[in-house]
Design brief:
0% strand; 3 helices; mainly alpha; 62 residues
């Protein structure tokens, strides 16, 4: 993750920045899974190494 990406993600805590960029941050396994199967365009997914390790996957295709 680049410094610019970190700054962008942090800025998205502010409503004005979300509106300006047309982006939002989604957190949590369930929400991320729902977004991946929705009509919304997922721009990027940032995850901790091993996030899905040990979890059973229903439709974990990104």
């Amino acid at each position: 993750m680049t410094k610019a990406e970190i700054q962008l993600v942090r800025s998205l805590a502010d409503k004005r920045s979300r509106t300006e960029h047309g982006l939002f941050v989604a957190e949590g396994h369930k929400f991320i899974g729902e977004l991946c199967t929705s009509a919304l365009r997922v721009r990027k997914i940032f995850a901790l190494e091993g996030l899905f390790r040990g979890r059973r996957s229903r439709n974990r295709v990104f």
